[in-house]
Amino acid sequence: MYLQSVGSKLSEDLKRIKHDHFDAMELSDYVKLISISTEETFEGGALICHQGQKNRFIRLVIEGDLDVLRDGVHTYSLNEGNFASEAGLHAGLLLSGDVESSCTMIAKPMEPGKHMKRARVLRWDRSELIRLLNNENALRRALSAAMSWDIIRKLKGQRQYISDQKVDDPELW
Question: How far apart are alpha carbons 112 and 38 in whole angstroms?
Answer without folding.
Answer: 31
